[in-house]
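fold-stage: in
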Amino acid sequence: MLSIAINYADLNGVSQSAPLAHPFKGENVLVSTPIFYANAAPHIGHLYSALLAGATKRWLVQRGANARMVTGTDEHGAKVAQAAQSRGMEPQEWCDQNSQIFQRLFELANVPLDTYIRTTHDDHKSMASFVWNKLNEANLIKDGSYEGWYAQDDEQFVPEAETEMTENGGNSVRLSKESGRPVAWIVEKTHIFEADKLSKEVTGWARKQGTIIPEMYSKAVQNMIPKQVGVSVSRPKERVSWGIPVPDSPESVMYVWVDALSNYLTASQRLFSKSWQSTKLVHVLGKDIIRFHGVLWPAILKGAGFCMPAQLVVHGHWMKDHMKMSKSIGNVVDPFSLLEAFGSSATAYFMLREGKLDGDSEFSEIQLEERFNSELADCLGNLVSRCVGLLKIRGEPMRIGPFAEEMHHSSLLQSARATSFSVHENFDSHNFAKGLEEIHRGMLNANRFITEREPWKRIKSDKDAAIADVWVCLRVASSALKLLHPVLGESVKPTLAHIGQDIHSADANGFVCGIDDSTISFFIQVFFLISTLCQQGILAKNMQDANMMFHAVPELSHL
């Protein structure tokens, strides 16, 4: 039996260098998706926004922030009322039905939600009215009239310069350049939010590095800000009856975007109680709604006396066969079918591995399966099974020798430390695709390391060095699993438990983590078992072989 003492000081010295603390450490942070339009069925773009926000929330928690997550449904507006009427339903009944579909999707995808906002909830109506009154008290809302090109399908006015004429069936039609939807000229009484009075503050906010990610969208927002003048923030009730009434103006309802954007404050108040007004807001959103989140929303917050968002995380759209998904083309991917076929872990891993912030992403079921199998099952799974495939054992813990010096000089540990810093940097900037690529590279290095070192042979001549090799690989594997937790969620916990750890054990943020007594006791049993098998001339190639060999070796029956 091996009997050597471990030098804890040397082991702890391996992890002295660590990534810088996250700027949100110790802060209340609300991570949000947009609230999704209740009229349309969920698509994979909705799912990606939720998965990206969920990974961000989990990562911020691991980095020491008091982070919470919200999503929900946007349930007001003329289109909602029209859709309900066409089906012989009341608007509330229609919204109840569709909102449940979104909630079911996020449950199936294991999105780590802390609350779900519906704009028809009473506390949200109160919050939207509160925000309106704050803007009114600041003399930023005035009575007026508004005339211009109005896109009914987008529920917004469009400047004439952002429209274009096109031919449709022999008729000339004016369309919004941005959405491609028709516009019509209307004149109506309204309330004007004088957003242009806050342009200087909003521009300063948008210019601050790290506020809008990626940087390309920061420049886009800065170009949009000068074009935002007075914004029509109400609609006549005779035209749009399904909405939140404007305070002290019962003949009007709030503009749907003022209503919808206020949901983030509703969620903050729900989740952070008395400290809700100081919550840092991190918004995950698609590039198509950046104007509302990057121009209108900061102005509303500033005008109402709140802090502007801490970050906007903007992502591209999902394509299939290099084309925009469309029912007419027949290339739409149903998120429910996707989750049913591949499960939540594989779906989340693929979408965050392939999803881009600075461009559009390509969806492929073949690539999804290949990514998950080759990078998680074959690479990480193989590393864990090679190291700990025989570990369902019993017995008293033993102590093994001083191999800390070899750990210090291990090329794998040096590589792992560099990888850990890179993963932190990428995850901190919400670039999960690049971070996951780095984790995969680290797993390839670990598999290559253990193949080259051949500890199952080396243990015959140098037990301490062989055990150190396996120890190093187990540390890399356990830390990789912790780094994967933001993406894979609870599914990593059983594997971590199998190697004697959990998300919060040791240093949950890096490849080179600290070591506690329970982990050492567990790993010592592992190494003793490997040593015994090697002395018997037996090599476990995979988990199945390992279980068979354990029962086949009489000398291990006392364990």
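fold-stage: in (second)
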Amino acid sequence: VAAAGASCKGPTSAAGDDQPDVSVVLSAYNQQGDPFMYKEYYSGLKHFIESALDCHRAELSQLFYPLFVHMYLELVYNQHENEAKAFFARFHGDQECYYEDDLRVLSGLSKKEHMQGNETLLDFRTSKFVLRLSRDSYQLLKRHLQERQNNQIWNIVQEHLYIDIFDGMPRSKQQIDAMTGSLAGEARREANKLKVYFGLLKEPEIEVPLDDEDDEGENEEGKPKKKKPKKDSLGSKSKKQDPNAPPQTRIPLPELKDSDKLDKIMNMKEAAKRVRLGPDCLPSICCYTFLNAYQGLTAVDITDDSSLIAGGFADSTVRVWSATPKKLRSVKHSSDLSMIDKEADDVLERIMDEKTSSESKILYGHTGPVYGISFSPDRNYLLSCSEDGTVRLWSLQTFTCLVGYKGHNCPVWDTQFSPYGYYFVSGGYDRVARLWATDHYQPLRIFAGHLADVTCIRFHPNCNYLATGSADRTIRLWDVLSGNCVRIFTGHKGPVHALAFAPNGRYLASGATDGRVLLWDIANGLMVGELKGHTDTVYALRFSRDGEMLASGAKDDTVRLWDSVKAVEDLETDDFTTLTGHINLTENSQELLLGTYMTKSTPIVHLHFSRRNLLLAVGAFNPQ
């Protein structure tokens, strides 16, 4: 046993291996201990941990759950059904409340045959459960198990757990509780050590002409010489290269079209009139409520310029509305287009068919509920993903489906266009995320590693990374170039349903069914904020345009505003915190909460800040 102790820190099987043969995986439970002794082993360890010093007790208590699961599965695998049931009944009440759902699944596995097709269980078995212990706590545990000759537990610790040992003070119960709760334990510290280029790409140089009202006289004389000085909020960002930004050509991005440049100019003009938000200047909130949405509203998106709103519905339709007085029109039929003078200045206006104008359009094509929806940045295309396993690309010129991308053979829960267009991502029930380009039928990258469904997915503002939230209660950050996972964040106690990157690219916010909103520092791979207030699943998160405020919308029918600047300003990220991988989080949710806004009975499913920082919230009225 002593010799084996030396290798305890090293993993015996890599978590990322391809799914091995089921029988081989489960045969690891063959090492027979005496089935009648399992209760003794476990209660012996329980007694030892509960009588340990306070400083070690919190850390060592992390062992309860993984050991309980593996010992139970060993009993089931070796067909000691009655002992397994008695073991479960006696000790399942000792586990942390956030493992309730997992325990419910486990209690249904009482025969060896049940274990064959259960994917979650196979994952639990093949990926080692990660525990973070201080060296002192680890030595204490090792000494106890070796003195007791408690081989059964020691074998499980070596076989199925990965103990990530750090030097320093043991962590407190509060620190551990903030970080634990995922299916595979915490993240290994080296998983969050790789360098991430979180900075923004350099903005292209675009000259902004003077506003019309300023230079009416000059333009007619043909000398629009004066260029309007750009406002610092955007100007300074585009001038110098961000030291943390990736090389401009690291990911090939599409060329800017003339229409994109015009849109950027519009954006800069709007930004000049943007309201600076802060604790003393909260945004106005406009709530769009879908009334009589008997089709079941399942997804919403709003274009960057807030001109169009799209909804995905459970009746498998996608509907697009104009949020401005401008109606939606289709392009004319090809026979009519041939008669148009292509050199005319207003050719883009002439190709539109006035007879088709209406306030909304319905897009038919999916054969299952539509769970995710996303506009392209140039507003020419719309993506939708559905339970039918496809992602569809729709034209907003003709309001027809252009392509159906098939790759996920099961429900696709979310999809999003890249901030630069052309690329998009999707994630689904098959536990992987895929990166696509609009002109390829096959995905360009497949990101595998989550242990359960990929429930939400977001591009980083610089397009070099994407974040995925999963039902395994973790968030991963992936490098688009290599396809590798560069960050793993644990701490949520339920499936993750919302993600949002801060405009500066450094922070990520996440929301889950546990009602907590967590803030992550991508640079150091650390949790830097825990915002408590919502009482139900958080479905929507969005940072304001300059990142000074975070808005969250939830199933509890509220929108909450948080001070995101204050949340991260006092952080001390010294060597110690990065070494041990945790920060002392203060309980300051109440100070950071700037406002709570109730709806009558509308769960909020989407939030959007307009270019002038007006907050738009969207949901379907839910008559009680």
